[in-house]
Amino acid sequence: MQESTSSVSEARAAGARVVGFGIAAVILILGAAGMFLLLSLPDANAFNTRVERLFVENADLTSAAEIKLLEILAQSGTAFSEVLAGYRVVIFVLLLFATGLLVACLVFVVTIILLNRRIGAIERQGIQVSSLTVNRGENLVVLNDMEFKLTGAAVETISVLAEARMDGDVLSGAEIESMISGKRAEDCEEASGATRIKRLRDALGNQMVSELLIKTIARQGYVLAIDQKAIRVI
Domain 132-233 classified CATH 1.10.8.60? Predict the structure, then answer.
């Protein structure tokens, strides 16, 4: 249990570090891109400067039409400056949105990775059960705070598994069938015990709970993935 808690804490710490580095990288990259875009845009007053040069270099333009043309050019320069200023604001806003979206995506990805690691740890270690009570008289199994009303055969199967777990034993399918039917293990078939295990898992209902609760050990048999001290058979 202590090793599991330690691994989860380390995973959270690693995830926090990844998120921190990722956010910093996103901000730096987008900040650099934003600076490049803003600096690449021409100066907002560039057009006005060119128009001003036209006024200075062509002082002999004195007719009404020529002066009107210069005034139109000056107004165009002002409009161009306003457009460029608007572009800068739009780019800044888009960069803010992009930063927010990338940071959110990074957090979601790290969260999914951590959840997958925790689910993997649960699958490797089994379900955490604080108490398991098997009531043969009422055909009832209480797992933590969940009650399961089972058939008599299913209760006998889980009772045998519980008693074997308290003794630290792993039972094969033939041994399970032998203990329930009263026959010798040599006279029982492995498939009969496996069928009882399957029916017990089906009776528990929740596939994840049942698969993690009743472990199958290759070439040995079946065992409850529960602490011996948490089991009580009445």
Answer: no
Buried b (16+ CB within 10 A) or exposed e, 141-159: bebeeeebebeeebbbbbb
Which residue, among 22, 10, 21, has the nearest Cα to 104 in the 3D structure?
A: 22
pTM of the model: 0.46
* Contact in structure between 102 and 26 (CB atoms under 8 Å): yes
Query: How far apart are alpha carbons 203 and 143 in whole angstroms?
Result: 13
* Angstrom distance (rounded) from CA 178 to CA 161: 12
DSSP state of 147: E
The answer to whether the CB of 208 falls within 8 A of the CB of 108 is no
Where exactly are the structural domains of the chain?
A: 2-125, 132-233
pLDDT (tens digit per residue) in 129-166: 678 888 888 888 887 777 878 888 888 888 888 888 88
| Residue 4 CB neighbours (<10 A) | 14
Under 8 Å between Cβ of 155 and 136: yes
Please state, as a whole number, how many other Cβ atoms lie within 10 Å of the Cβ of residue 214: 22
Cα 232 from Cα 234, distance rounded (Å)? 7
Instruction: Report the alpha-carbon angle 121-124-130, nearest 5.
Output: 80
The helix/strand/coil state of 58 is coil
